[in-house]
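protien #1 (seq + structre)
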Amino acid sequence: MALSSLNSLYMAVVADHSKNPHHHGVLENAEHVQLNNPTCGDVISLSVRFDGDYISDIAFAGDGCTISTASASMMTDAVLGKTCSEVLALADVFSKMVQGEKSADQEKLGDAEFLAGVSKFPQRIKCATLAWNAIKMAIESQKANKK
């Protein structure tokens, strides 16, 4: 596939997740985390339900740019049904990927792997990682509440 065709595919997937985000909304009886990116104004409210150590349901709401919204949509797809440790590992892979570090585990990110190109735009890294930072905070909060 030609490079321009591949770039077009990446842009189409990102645009689709932004315009038609998956798991968009607010969950009742869930762990809630809200984060914002002060540099651009993106805000995400993440709702997560846990079943033991598993993410049993997840949703997000908020106001953000295309990258932020697409990343949140992709993240919710990637983490649903996973254990907290699996999610934390994915968040680490994602964070390194958007900073330009390659990993064999990137394929585990699903559509979120399409955001690897964000590494070329350092000012957009915070947009891309906002939802992933929120899921890490939700897991930390869940663990703290179990004690």
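ok now protien #2
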Amino acid sequence: MGGDKKKSAASMEKSQDNDKSKESGAKKDKKDRKGEKSERKAEITVILGEDQALKLIKSNNYLTIQELAKQTGVKISAANACLTGLLKKGSVKRAGGFAGHWIYQPVN
């Protein structure tokens, strides 16, 4: 009903200056700036050897996924993959725990 408010002379002058600078290429679009900033991040791969994990389990008599990840310095997902691989091979067994927080023991 009321419409837009009329801009003051100073704000109109600023908007004209901005339009000129955009045309001349002084300011870049967000997409252009975003493309320049992003650099490809290096992929970090940490391999946890099953023999290393088994050695830690035998020295502690039992181990959880979280403890294995902390002691070896790998992600929890890598420690989980290693322990599930050892479980399938029969090198370790579940001794207790619940809901994904399992305690693993070496098989004698």
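Residues 7 and 13 are 10 Å apart (CA to CA).
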